[in-house]
Amino acid sequence: MTSDDAAERQPSAGHQIAEAIRELILDGKLTVDQRLPGEQDLATRFGVSRPTVREALKRLAAQNLIRTRRGATGGNFVNRPTWSGAHDQLVATATLLMTMAPMPAETVAEARLSLLGACMPMAAERRGPEHLRAMRDEVARQRVADISDEDFCASDVRFHRVLVEATDNPLIAFQMAGVVEAIQPLLNMITYRERDRTRIADWNERLCDRLEARDVEGALAELSASADHTAQLAARAQEMRAAGGSGS
């Protein structure tokens, strides 16, 4: 590796400063609603220019760790974290990773099956009539003959989001956001040309039936069968894409 390559891999000063401030926030040394030192004070403390400090602050704002307030009492303040903000950031990060760092379809499908399967016992135990009703509404939408690919995918994501919410555990629902709203759309996007919508709707409806009966083993069997089918379609789609790329 050349010195130029090493320089390209070295994080910028702005990145390093953002990471340092981020650690202070995560460690509790900078508390919620606390005002950060001014740009010049930060520049002096870190021995950099004010534009470098601004780069760091922009990075922190993009991570929703700080907010800016204008006026005489303005400045940069440590943000109060919210579930919705953290959820959006988690989904965005997972989506970016799925897009920029692709991995074998079998690996993605395996992760989805394992993580959704872990939710099944709690969902079967705690699901309420509102969850079953919402999931069956999505199945009905999926059976509409002229539904678009985009709307079918969106319905499938909503179906699995309700499945996770049926665990009645907000922390689990938060952690599963990347699976439901990043992995699920990715698999849908890969397989939409080959999949049988009726077959998927049938699986989803049977999954509802199993949850309604609190039949965990049956629900896991339906989930596993659907996951195996999706993995096969995704692997085939990736092979066709690779073959097309190699022949160009």
Structure commentary:
With about 250 residues, the chain is mainly alpha-helical. The chain has two domains: about 5-80, Arc Repressor Mutant, subunit A; about 85-245, GntR ligand-binding domain-like (Four Helix Bundle (Hemerythrin (Met), subunit A), Up-down Bundle). The protein has twelve helices and two strands; from the N terminus they run H-H-H-H-E-E-H-H-H-H-H-H-H-H. The chain has helices spanning about 5-10, 15-25, 40-45, 50-60, 85-100, 105-125, 130-140, 150-165, 170-175, 175-190, 195-210, 215-245; strands spanning about 65-70, 75-80. Strands 1-2 form a two-stranded antiparallel sheet. Strand 1 (about 65-70) and strand 2 form a beta hairpin. Helix 5 packs parallel to helix 10 (about 175-190) and helix 7 (about 130-140) packs antiparallel against helix 11. The longest helix is centred in the C-terminal third of the chain and has 32 residues, at about 215-245. The protein is elongated, with a radius of gyration of 23 Å. The mean pLDDT is about 85.
